[in-house]
Structure to design on (328 residues):
């Protein structure tokens, strides 16, 4: 199946680069060359993200995961502006280490702990789309199953019972690890995450954190294109948001 | 100058897989009387402050802001020595 590509000339994407980010170029490549968007790198020492529509915090090992993954990156100068941008409704996508940074910064609730197996897990997994009601999934069907790579040692999502109830009742769990047929099982949970959670939204639904890597499966040459549905959702959302 | 010793550990309510794996290994090595193993971090800091209370208060603020994640971790601060 061909990915649904809806180029939006005006969509400006900023990819944050911390020392130790290592998926920044993958995201840049997908956005620029596969999906034909405007994209620039933003060094973490910048004080402003500038004029952007979408901020991506990419995967990697910011600051070598010193102390806790994401704990030091979240105090980088750029993060003040990212928090401001997110609170003003700007779209922020945190992938893998980006998800960890978003949790540490308080933009998303909960935390990501060592995988239950204590092992780094690098493989394709199945995730089920739990809600269509977000800028990141509006082009996906609820219940649709994506095949997508994960590569992390600390992706075990944890939050208080109260927070988990809130995420569930507010429809803020976006993706759950599942079997290839969509069944949610403990065996399909690669890291021990509570409720098989692979990705969550903030209360405003404009910030998404997810452990799997959509940028690694948005080009058939890289073995899959299920990830492009997430980026294309953002483009569709942005196009609808911009008055004609 | 004060020396602070800070221990950061997973909250009691949270399963500690590292501690569990280590506990299993100890049991296999014949250490029978060990009921539980929890693994955390030890952070030592040298702090310039006017008083022991100030040093402790600074160490606590450092824990709250950066060193411990309140979602998953607890911390303890001890000022263990002072030197001129």
């Amino acid at each position: 199946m061909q990915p649904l590509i809806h180029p939006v000339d005006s969509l400006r994407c900023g990819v944050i680069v911390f020392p130790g980010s290592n998926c920044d170029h993958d995201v840049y490549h997908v956005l620029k060359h596969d999906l034909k968007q405007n994209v620039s790198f933003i060094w973490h020492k910048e004080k402003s993200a500038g004029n952007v529509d979408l901020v991506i915090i990419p995967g990697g090992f910011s600051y070598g995961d010193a102390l806790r993954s994401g704990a030091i990156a979240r105090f980088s100068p750029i993060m003040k502006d990212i928090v401001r941008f997110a609170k003003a409704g700007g779209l922020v996508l945190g992938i893998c280490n980006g998800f960890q940074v978003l949790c540490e910064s308080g933009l998303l609730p909960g935390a990501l702990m060592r995988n239950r197996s204590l092992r780094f897990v690098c493989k394709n997994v199945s995730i089920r789309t739990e809600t269509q009601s977000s800028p990141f999934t509006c082009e996906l069907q609820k219940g649709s199953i994506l095949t997508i790579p994960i590569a992390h040692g600390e992706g075990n999502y944890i939050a208080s019972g109260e927070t988990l109830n809130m995420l569930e009742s507010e429809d803020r769990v976006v993706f759950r690890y599942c079997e290839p047929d969509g069944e949610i099982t403990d065996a399909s949970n690669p890291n021990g995450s509570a409720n098989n959670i692979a990705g969550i939204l903030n209360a405003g639904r404009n910030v998404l954190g997810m452990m799997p890597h959509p940028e690694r499966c948005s080009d058939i040459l890289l073995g899959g294109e299920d990830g492009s549905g997430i980026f294309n959702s953002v483009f569709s959302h942005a196009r609808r948001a911009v008055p004609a | 100058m004060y020396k602070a010793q800070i221990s950061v550990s997973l909250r009691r309510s949270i399963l500690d897989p590292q501690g569990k794996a280590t506990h299993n290994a100890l049991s296999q090595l014949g250490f029978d009387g060990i009921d539980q193993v929890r693994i955390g971090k030890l952070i030592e800091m040298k702090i310039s402050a006017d008083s022991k209370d100030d040093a402790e208060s600074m160490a606590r603020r450092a824990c709250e802001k950066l060193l411990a994640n309140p979602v998953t971790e607890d911390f303890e601060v001890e000022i263990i020595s002072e030197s001129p």
Q: What stands out?
A: The CA atoms of residues 122 and 186 of chain A lie 18 Å apart. Residues 1-8 of chain A have pLDDT under 50 and may be disordered. The domain at 12-240 of chain A is CATH 3.40.50.880 (Rossmann fold).
